Amino acid sequence: MSINHKIADALIRNKVEFVTTVPCKQLAGVIELVDSDKRFMHVPSNKEDEGMGLCAGAFMGGKRACIIMQNTAIGVTINSLVTLIQYYNIPLPMLISYRGEVGEKVACQAEMAVHTKSLLDQLKIPTYHFHKPDDVNELDGILNHAFMAKKPVAVLMDASFWSAAQ
Amino acid sequence: MIRSEVIKSIVPVLEGQLVVCNIGLPSQELYMHHDQPSNFYMLGTMGLASSIGLGLALAQKKKVIAIDGDGSILTNFGTLPTIANNVADNFILLIIDNGSYGSTGDQPTYAGRKTSLTAVAKACGCDTVIECQAEDTAQVLRDALKSNRMTIIVSKCKSGNVPVSVIDLDAPVIKHRFMEEVRRG
Fold this sequence. Notes:
The structure holds two protein chains of two kinds.
Chain A: H1 3-13, E1 16-21, H2 28-36, E2 41-42, H3 48-60, E3 64-70, H4 74-86, E4 92-98, H5 107-122, E5 127-130, H6 139-149, E6 152-158, H7 159-163
Parallel strand pairs in A: 1-2, 1-3, 3-4, 4-6, 5-6
Chain B: H1 3-14, E1 18-21, H2 25-34, E2 39-41, H3 49-59, E3 64-69, H4 70-75, H5 79-85, E4 91-97, E5 100-101, E6 107-108, H6 117-123, E7 129-133, H7 137-147, E8 151-156, H8 171-183
Parallel strand pairs in B: 1-2, 1-3, 3-4, 4-8, 7-8
Antiparallel strand pairs in B: 5-6
């Protein structure tokens, strides 16, 4: 089974029905899968903070929600994470393509990569780094943890992890 | 009419409805005029009332009214195409357009100058967009609730504020009582 299918199945097992996405090249496969899989309500966002608003609303409406985005989005969502998601105790799994790590082809991506973990640490957001294909098996527990703790959690999926999805 | 008077005028229409209200003075005015557990007050995060409202409307069947402002729509401009392309017929977006950033001291917005949010919403693909004068807001909102069609209302009112107190509810309490109302049969 492909990594993309394993991600989608872990979301379903954890009753995540509402998914919003902002594209990244590494995420193309999982976004396509979420869009075509009728078990998900997929609402693409134009910007990641908008997506966090959609997820907060969906959660309050009774649907577990998650956002799929690139790590550069941490730079644009800090206020939404702090004053909406964390302030109101809203669970939000963030599946994040971790651009700018070893294997990256676009130099600029390395600039945000060096800040990603320290920003998440500063925000006290539980963060998990998927580097090897088998790390995907941790996703069930991480999703369960996010909804139990009613917190945002970040899953950083790097180029090495995604290369196994090909 | 100024925004506070518009909000006061729609209180009878909001009774018992799920309402997501914009940050700052709009939420404080709604809290002052008519607090109810089915009001979700935004205490932070400018611009996301319409997104929260749409997510809520897509996730469940009850009607949802998001009360937003021209300034916060401009802040989260990407929301209008998302709304247009993900139609929820239980969703009403009421933009109280006073042409200014009221909560921060009435600085003028572009919506009060050359930019028409009504035209923008239509250009984004929203099918039912109604611009009205402040005095007609309650009736337009009442009609929109009856229509069972996703509706964007742009209510044109005057700039200006009245003294209001802060909302003395904790954020998780606001969320908790709101979600109980969502679940109520």
